[in-house]
Amino acid sequence: MHILSGTYSTLIQVVAVLFGLGLLIFIHELGHFTMAKLYKVKVLKFAFGFGKEIIGFTKGETRYSICLFPFGGMVAMAGENPDEATGKDGEFLSLKWYKKVMIAFCGPLMNYVLAVLIFAFVFNVWGLTNISTEASIGYLSDENCAAKAGLLVGDKILSVDGIQIKDWFDLTKNLKEKADKEVELIVFRDEKELDFKFVLDKNPNTGSGMLGIQPKITKEKVSFFSAFYHGIDTSIYQSTFTLKYLWEKLVSWEKPEVAGPIGVIQVMAKSAKSGLESYIRLLAVISVALGLFNLLPIPLVDGGMIILFIAEGIIRKQISLKVIQVYNTIGLSLILLIFLFATYNDLIRLGIGKLFK
């Protein structure tokens, strides 16, 4: 019975990962497809998934397909490949620069629209999550140092090694450089101040010191319109926070902590196991990340192509096919490097990467 239960749980996780990734990439491609049709570009194929076609039909010049592997979708437009472009009407590269910008932009835009709607749904159904800024313990992991040292949920941390703690940000800042070192914490519990000394754990992902605690979290029921507003706000906050993080890492020449395909699949599987709310919320988070990545000025992705087409509008003539080919080659190399770096980070987190050090 236990084996059957475990198999069922694993199957649910696999389906959740396939569906989630498929939905996010399909919505992205739907944005490109819709705008291409609006501008009368000949869309040769619009597919859900990839690989061998399971079922499909042809309407006009477009083949609509459902393919074997539901990991996303694809939009094949006439004249989008520089090697095959002829300059005829109905080809992607023959469009005015601003129309090409709109087609490229609508893919990431759809990811943001989906994220806002999902966040709004989560906030409306399960409530808006409010995370306390107080340095009080709302959750305690049994496996980490704080619980083993005797700290309890509800304890308020007053100081770390004699330094007064004002809020949660203050706490994380003062623990950051203390991984694997002994720390002294003064906490307030039952009208008393208690003293604890123990060795701080090390966060396996960031290398920072960690207690294994989380702040107090409350849920607030909100109306649909309020949930929609917070969905927009959350999507914007997540994007700006990510950009700020990447910029700080770039300026300081530090290695950013990013997740690759393995990491994303692992997180999705865990969230599916945690519950429907956690899984749906994660879909919104990944949808924002997918939209943001595709807007970065990297050649070959949507953001890089938007930069190229805007340049075409500035110089008031079409970029030569040879320049586009070189530009795409550079982009492919950059994307491959990012993929390898992110995958290596995934392997390090899993403990496999240590073999290559």
Shape: elongated
Q: Which stretches of 5+ consecutive residues score pLDDT under 50?
A: 1-5, 353-357
Number of strands: 12
User: DSSP strand (E) fraction?
Assistant: 15-25%
Order the strands across the largest sheet as they lie in space: 6-5-7-8
With helices defined by DSSP (H or I, 4 residues minimum), what is the helix count?
9
Instruction: Report on the biggest sheet.
Output: 4 strands, antiparallel
Supply the number of structural domains.
2
What order do the helices and strands follow? HEEHEEHEEHEEEEEEHHHHH
Structural class: alpha+beta
* Quaternary organization: single chain
Task: Estimate the helix proportion, in percent.
Answer: 40-55%
Explain the overall architecture:
Helix content is 52%, strand content 20%. By secondary structure, it is α+β, with helices and mostly antiparallel strands. The chain folds into two domains: 2-127 and 266-356, no CATH class; 139-218, Roll (Pdz3 Domain). The strands form five sheets. A four-stranded antiparallel beta sheet has the order 6-5-7-8. A two-stranded antiparallel sheet has the order 1-2. Helix 1 (2-38) crosses helix 6 (261-274) and helix 1 runs parallel beside helix 7. The two termini are 42 Å apart. 29% of the residues are buried.
Write the layout of secondary structure elements.
Blueprint: H1 2-38, E1 43-59, E2 62-77, H2 97-126, E3 128-131, E4 139-140, H3 145-149, E5 156-160, E6 163-164, H4 168-175, E7 182-189, E8 192-199, E9 201-202, E10 209-210, E11 213-214, E12 217-220, H5 224-251, H6 261-274, H7 276-295, H8 302-315, H9 321-350
Antiparallel strand pairs: 1-2, 3-12, 4-11, 5-6, 5-7, 7-8, 9-10
Helix pairs in contact: 1-2, 1-6, 1-7, 2-5, 2-7, 2-8, 6-7
